[in-house]
Every structure is written in C-alpha cells, then in structure tokens.
Amino acid sequence: MSRIAALIVAAGRGERMGGSVPKQYRELMGKSVLRRAVEVFTSRSDIAVSQVVIASSDRELYAEAVKGLKVLPALGGGGTRQHSVMHGLEALSAHKPDFVLIHDAARPLTSQSLVDRVVAALESGADAAIPLLPVSDTLKRNASLGRWETISRENTWRAQTPQGFRFNAIWQAHREYNGRVVTDDMALAELAGLTITPVDGEETNMKITSPSDLETAQSLLGGFETRTAFGFDSHRFAPGKFVWLCGVKIAHREGLEGHSDADAGLHALTDALLGTIGEGDLGQHFPPADERWRDASSSIFVEHAAKLIAERNGHVVHCDITLICESPKIAPHREAMRARIAEILKIDVSRVSVKATTTEGMGFTGRREGLVAQAVATVALPRT
C-alpha cells in the first residue's frame, strides 16, 4: 500500500478578505476554514501524515484551529506560496511518502470523493493528478482603457486542489525550478515534463477569497440534514474498586462487569452515533468475544463511530447522556464527563449534556445491582 502525505498550505494573508484575521482562520459554520480543510485529510485512514505550513505570526490561531487533529508540528512558510510548499516538502521528505497531496487551506469544502479520484490517478501510474473544471463563462481581458477583448474558452480549464504528485518527482521539480515564479504546483510539473492526469473537479470545491465566498460556502454547508438516534446500555456491578462512566474513572465500592472497561455511558453513546448513519451497533464493530477488546478503553469505540461519521463528511451536533443509578453519585463528576466526551468527539463542551437520575429504589438499579445509560446523538450529514 502506498504511503501518502498531505501538505496543506496556510501561510497566506488573504488580503482581499479584509479584516484583521486571515481568511483561513475565519469561522465557517462552527469551524475555522483551515480546520475544515485539514479534516479532509486527517479523517482518512490512507493518509499517513499531514503537514500544515503557516505564517509564523499565526501560531496561536493555528493551535486553536487544529486542536485535537492528528497533524505534524506546524511549519513556518516562505515569502511566497511556492516557497511555503518547498518548505513543506523538505519537512515531509523525512517521512518518505510515495505520494503527496498539496492543498490550499482556503478550500474547506473538498469532498472525500474528489480526494479518492486524485489518489486513484496516482495509484494508476500518473506522475501528477489535478482536479479540473471546464470554463463555462465568457472570458474578457482588459486590453487597454475602455477596450476589452474576448478570450476563447476552447480547451480552457479551471484548476483546483488537492493536486497529487509522486513525492520525489514534485520535490525534484521544486528544487530544479526554484527560481521560476509559478501559480501552482502543477505548473512546476509541466516544466518538469511529468505525466499529468486530469480528474473531475467539483463546483463546491470553491476557494475562499472574499466575504461573499464565505457566505456562499455557508450556504453550501446548509445543505445538510440532521439525524438523531438513540443508544442504550446496562451493566451489572461486580467486585472492584472503581467504575468507568463517560470516560471518567470514579472510585466505588464495586466495579462494573463487562468485556471492555464496561463504560455504559460511552457504550450507549457509541450506539447512538452508529445509529445516525445506519451502521448497526457496538457489538457488530467490536464483538465481545474478541480478545482485542478485553479491558479496552471505551473511548476507542466512540472515536470509531465519530470517524465513520466524518468519512461521510458529517459532524456531531450534540449528544445527551442520561445515567440511571443509585450510586455512584454523578453530580461531582458531571463536568469532567462532559469535558472528556467533548475531547473524544472533538466538539465544544457546550454540545455535550450528561444527566443522572434514579428509579426511586425500583428495579435492578434501585436494588443497586447495576446501572443503565441512555444516549441521544444528533449529527449533520450532507443531503443525498
């Protein structure tokens, strides 16, 4: 299997956007433009490493934007995009990738299908792969004051990113043509005589350059549907000195019986998340008879469900967990539970609710034989 690296270029200032915050750090439907661009790659299992090149003055903004994402340490950019890419390639060379996908941070709406097409072209033998769209509008050039010329649209295409390359080929091209000023990496591939395979671009894979572009992107993201699903789990008490609930270890006179860490709260949440995308239940993905999951942290299960949602370009909107038990007392641990769940799902803690109640002494929970967890998850997914 080929080793693939992603290089996201985010060192630009975006002056046409206006304001004091660079466009890649502007909020777009609850996430920064940069985070959305980076998540396209960090959510994929076939991307080995992701490197972001930034302006050195943006380190605080960057740290907040990518919090919780699996990326290499930020790399300072150069005076031009071309130099920034060169810096990124030099850093990635230590990881010895076969292919590299170079992407503009100002394109936050790239689909997984588009990335699939670029990767497939490289796997099929191309030196380089580029998403292209035909030019449909009439093109005009200002020849002189008050005089305009029409430019032929024939064989004219719009280039997008991510642009994919055999790593050593594009690295060599950057070094060989370091003095040539180009607008994108494909121009260097052309100079180097690399074989280039076009793939279908996407109108929605727009580049944010102005406030109106940001509004358009917000409108496109509004094309989501909301899904809600329910999860339930219960565990009996067993000999032990602590219990795990919603990712928090709580001292207790008994433990909980279960194959993993028996965290009923996270088990119920996993089932709720899987339910939003019709992916069955916890037992299907992590069979209790499989020794790999003995004593495993249930955070693994929640992360897996969240990854499946991300692979569908969805995101978790909100989750609500109710714990039903006579003991342990939940209130002293509620905020730690909310914080831990938010950390696992990489969402704001305001989107996580944890509640507790009892059955007033009735039933097996009332007899302190075990406890119950219920969860409701709401996710947003692209309309199909």
Task: Give me some keywords for this one.
single chain; 384 residues; 2 domains; 5-stranded mixed sheet; 12 helices; 30% helix; elongated
Characterization of the model:
With 384 residues, this protein is an alpha/beta fold. It folds into two domains: 4-140 and 158-221, Spore Coat Polysaccharide Biosynthesis Protein SpsA, Chain A (Alpha-Beta Complex), CATH 3.90.550.10; 224-382, 60s Ribosomal Protein L30, Chain: A (2-Layer Sandwich). The protein contains twelve helices and 19 strands. The chain has helices spanning 33-42, 59-65, 81-92, 112-123, 167-176, 185-191, 211-221, 264-276, 282-285, 299-311, 334-345, 363-366; strands at residues 4-10, 27-28, 31-32, 47-54, 75-76, 99-104, 128-134, 139-144, 147-151, 157-159, 163-166, 196-200, 224-238, 242-245, 248-251, 255-256, 315-324, 352-357, 370-382. Strands 1, 4, 5, 6, 7, 10, 11 and 12 form an eight-stranded mixed sheet that branches. A five-stranded mixed sheet has the order 16-13-19-17-18. A hairpin with a 2-residue loop joins β14 and β15. α3 (81-92) crosses α5. It is elongated and about 85 Å long. The two termini are 31 Å apart. The model has no long low-confidence stretch (mean pLDDT 91).
